Amino acid sequence: MRIGLESLGDVVDPSTGRTTPAGELRSRILRRRDEYLAAGLRPGDRVLLRHGNSPRFLIDLLAVWSAEGCAAPADPALPAPEFEAVLKETGCSFVSSGDAIRFIGRVDCGSADARLLLLTSGTSGRPKAILHSFQGLQSRFRAWGSRIKAGDLSETLCFLPTHFGHGLLANCLFPLLQGARLHVVPPFDFNLLATLDQYVDRHSITFMSSVPSAWNLITRFAESPRQGSLKRIHCASAPFPADLWKVVERWGGDAAFVNCYGLTEVASWVASTEGCPGARDTGCVGRAWDAQFEIREGEVWVRADSLMLGYHGRPELTARVVRDGWLNTGDLGRIDAEGRIFLTGRTGTLINKAGMKISPEEVEAVMKGHPAVSEVCVFGLPDPLSGETVAAAVVFAGSVPAPHFEDLEAWCRERISPFKVPTRWFGLDALPKTSNGKPDRRSLVNRFKEEGRHGSGT
Amino acid sequence: MVPELELERIFRAVMNLDADRPVEGIVRGEFPAWDSLRHAELILRIQDRLGIAFRGAEIIRIDSYAKLRSLIEARMSARRGDPGDP
């Protein structure tokens, strides 16, 4: 199955003000495809795309697809150690930064149908590499296309990261392949968010989607757009506070505001509040969107044609979360008599910072490599901006001088994605433990959620 | 607390700076910890603690501690009605 480029729209690069029209976009995609073929790309080969949020990135990704390869977008801000780990985890044979194509060795991945690999945090500390087929992605695009009018998407703005399912699939590729003019900007650029009304009005933006923390910022700092161009605004990836709902609706004017629920494992949005009564009720994520939902022992399971092929290299994990075509979402919830889905919590320890999932175990594994750190426990604390932020409670080894938290933070930045680096720090003489001897995250959350940015806790 | 001292306290807390680290020369593009989320948090905390509302265009221009301090001083002077201030 091939991706069709016939209905592509234009792409706008706000940093240069230049629009790449669809015809030129197609030519550049095909030229880039030929570069991949000349570099030795074979069907099924995986390409790590180490850039994002630009017309060049979209050309690169669509070129890989045109060459029947599998695109693996990665966070461009990954420091070298994490990048190397991601490379190993994804089975990529090529790396592209947008210009040069580097062949790093052929890897037989065994998933000939995989065309997209998206990374997400895993609870064991290893990232999970989610594989999707064209068939699965197309089924999700068709589902969205059956409910969202093409006209609503005509001028789409994306300021979400393109290595993230919500940003790439729902806010970039879906509109672009429907013929939208897509404006793609650096992710979470606060300067843009604080003046978003000006961009929306200047370019008559009709559609955009984001996460609750970004909507919180936008409605606090940006004026409401005045031209009335917005037709539809979406939100997803994190719980949406009921008190923010009215604020966003007021900001968006006549635009329809829709809260969506989705997972990378099912190619993003599989439920929405559109046309759903009581949508503002706490925890409500609406009704199924071309998917089926079930509750099993309090946990939310979903079935959809857009279900992933599996996690690369993790058949046992795949078998644990997918049973007979049903995916365990990792969310707790209920479904009422009207089919409305309510989320009530998470089963695991993942931190949800501004819609991005962060594994505490992954951060701990890195921090344990610091010579001054004897023990560490990473946990999420409530944050008024990002929903949750990353906190770390550290027990220093007595054998070396304890660093300042500022220096520890800088050390982490050299090793993991900036987004995962703790922003709140606590020095302890000992970590509280559960009855089975593991660090007690829950008690640390309860202890520190009211405290300041860092403290001794002693 | 004197606004300048409060500003420095807020800045150090948001940027996770140690007490002995000078703040005056810190520039946003050169200081990795000063990312978009922290910039937003900084603005919000200053608004809440010092009662200063920033306009969108001002938020974009704040790219160093020195500029932030000057902006706050100008706002405080205007509030006090000091002669010759904006």
Q: If you average the pLDDT of chain A, what whole number results?
A: 92
How many E-type strands of chain B? 0
Radius of gyration of chain A: 22 Å
Taking all Cα atoms into account, the compactness measure Rg of chain B is 13 Å
Given the C-alpha coordinates, what overall shape of chain B results? globular
CATH superfamily of chain B: ACP-like
Task: Characterize the main sheet of chain A.
Answer: 14 strands, mixed
Summarize model confidence as the mean pLDDT of chain B. Answer: 86
Assign a percent range to the helix content of chain B. Answer: 55-70%
Described by its quaternary structure, the protein is heterodimer
Count every beta strand of chain A, where a strand is a DSSP E run of 2 or more residues.
27
Enumerate how many helices of chain A there are, as a single number.
13
Find the CATH topology of chain B. Non-ribosomal Peptide Synthetase Peptidyl Carrier Protein, Chain A
Can you give me a brief rundown of this structure?
The complex is a heterodimer of chains A (458) and B (86). With 458 residues, chain A is α/β, with parallel strands linked by helices. Chain A has 13 helices and 27 strands.
Mind explaining what this structure looks like?
The complex is a heterodimer of chains A (458) and B (86). Chain A is α/β, with parallel strands linked by helices and 458 residues long. Helix content of chain A is 29%, strand content 28%. Chain A has helices at residues 22-38, 55-66, 80-90, 134-145, 165-177, 190-194, 196-203, 212-221, 242-252, 315-321, 360-367, 405-413, 441-448; strands at residues 11-13, 18-20, 46-49, 70-73, 94-96, 101-103, 114-120, 128-133, 155-158, 181-184, 207-210, 232-235, 256-263, 268-272, 284-288, 292-296, 299-303, 310-311, 322-323, 326-335, 341-346, 351-353, 356-358, 373-383, 387-396, 424-427, 454-455. In chain A, helix 8 packs across helix 9. Chain A is globular and about 65 Å long. Chain A starts with 10 loop residues before the first strand and ends with a strand. The mean pLDDT of chain A is 92. With 86 residues, chain B is an all-alpha fold. In chain B, helix 1 runs antiparallel to helix 4. Chain B has a single domain, classed as Non-ribosomal Peptide Synthetase Peptidyl Carrier Protein, Chain A, CATH 1.10.1200.10. The longest helix of chain B is centred in the last third of the chain and has 16 residues, at 65-80. The chains are: A alpha/beta (458), B mainly alpha (86). Chains A and B meet through helix 6, helix 8 and helix 12 of A and helix 2 and helix 3 of B.
